[in-house]
Predict the 3D structure of the following.
Amino acid sequence: MVFAMSKILSYRGRTVTQADIDFLKDLIAAHPDDSRRALSRRVCRAWDWTQLNGQLKDMVCRGLLLRLEREGHIVQPPPKCIIGRYRRKRPEPVNIDTVPINVPLKKIRSQLRFKQVRRTAHEKLFNSLIEQYHYLAYAQPVGEHLKYIVFREQRPVACLAFSSAAFALNVRDNFIGWSREQRDNNRHLLAYNTRFLILPWIQVKFLASHLLSRCARRISSDWEAVYNHPIYWLETFVDTERFAGTCYKAANWRYLGQTKGRGKYNKSHKQLTSIKDIYGLPLDSGFRDKLCL
């Protein structure tokens, strides 16, 4: 009962207590010249709040501190920069070969090369292609994520991006069959396909499902190489007003259900966004056993 009384909120799997609030107030008072970024890094180190690859959960911590400030629990140092002046720049357009490719898949299958471009020289190219040619444009991911460009020789053909999965998704959680505690402990073993783009001048039948299948065979080992853990499940949302999800079905992704169209933070019962079909793909035959540990 004492613990329940001291709990302030839960944020991204971490419970914040009154003792945490007192610690944060003392830390802010002890380092009045810190920037908000420096403060969040101090908090991460003090709380041992890290990803599995050892990197600090800096962005997550900043989100927590901002929420605590908005709710009146703490007062952070003032921002070091003027809002708007240092906003992240949109990726700049790139000039690439746009000569159409319209051939059977079997003619180019062996020529297609996947390149994981996260933290490489090709990452800017990925960002620019998504910004220019994907209907959702580019958004900087937060947390664990990978980015792929598929090349035919030196020409980019497609882009795929994967990020940390949603915290709670009823149809997915029911399909996996895990408890809330298991989900909180093992959600990092899931990934969400945030972007899938085949460049508009690439007209190759069955290419989309082929790329999804090839990516599914390698993504777990790629994830482990970057973040020191595998993944056992992929999921995505398909906008029903734009797409039928045919390529996901052809690549053996499982239809799980639909969203309500209320958006991520909407607390009302009104539909504010388009309805999305939800698809999932187990990457391991024993995925339930591994996710329900």
